[in-house]
Design brief:
The chain contains 6 helices and 6 strands, in the order αβαβαβαβαββα. It has helices at about 5-15, 30-40, 60-65, 90-110, 125-135, 170-175; strands at about 20-25, 50-55, 80-85, 115-120, 140-150, 150-155. A 4-stranded antiparallel sheet has the order 2-3-5-4, with helices on both faces. A two-stranded antiparallel ribbon has the order 1-6. α2 packs antiparallel against α4 (about 90-110). The longest helix has 21 residues, at about 90-110. It is globular and about 55 Å long.
């Protein structure tokens, strides 16, 4: 296992990863996109199944159509790039886990490359079917979300009902040995 000389700097950067839903208009450079796709490709998956296919979406009309699936993702229309995560549809449980892993890795890699990103969930089953039609995804595949990427112009949440910021203290989140027990 590799040991990084600057591991604390890396963990400090991890704590800075935020959802960015507002982007400058410039395109994501091809070399950054290639790096992100390699990170996605090398993400671990359940039983190394690699149950995914990635669709790179830069077409403004497709992004606009995705943004209209449901009001909370209207910000997708202004993004320069999205990567749809398409899953094989063989195992809902393990693929949900794998989807989460690859999504988080893409967001972390984007941050380290100077980009911002956010997740846009398509919505319920009918909305997922609409998204699949927009992106030409076969019916038997699973597609629930896109990872939206670009150079952030703000990390302010533009949604109609933004979530609050900050983090709970560790004392509210961590137990030792048994639920509810403090560190001895």
């Amino acid at each position: 296992m590799a040991t990084l000389a600057n591991a604390r700097q890396v963990t400090a950067e991890l704590r800075k990863v935020r959802q960015a839903r507002q982007y400058r208009p410039e395109a994501v450079p091809d070399d950054a996109l290639a790096e992100l796709l390699e990170v996605a490709r090398w993400t671990g998956s359940s039983r190394n199944s690699q149950p995914w296919h990635f669709i790179v979406v830069t077409d403004k009309e497709q992004l606009r159509q995705i943004s209209r699936l449901r009001p909370p993702i209207n910000w997708v229309a202004e993004a320069p790039l999205a990567i749809a995560i398409v899953l094989d549809g063989a195992s809902e449980t393990s693929e949900a886990y794998d989807e989460a892993r690859v999504t988080e890795r893409l967001l972390i890699a984007a941050h380290l490359l100077g980009l911002g990103g956010a997740i846009a969930w398509f919505g319920d089953g009918a909305q997922q079917q609409q998204a699949k039609a927009i992106l030409g995804i076969p019916a038997e595949r699973t597609a629930r979300s896109v990872v939206v990427l670009g150079y952030p112009s703000s990390t302010k949440d533009p949604r109609p009902n933004p979530a609050g910021g900050g983090r709970k203290p560790l004392s509210e989140l961590v137990s030792y040995g048994r639920f509810g027990e403090a560190k001895a």
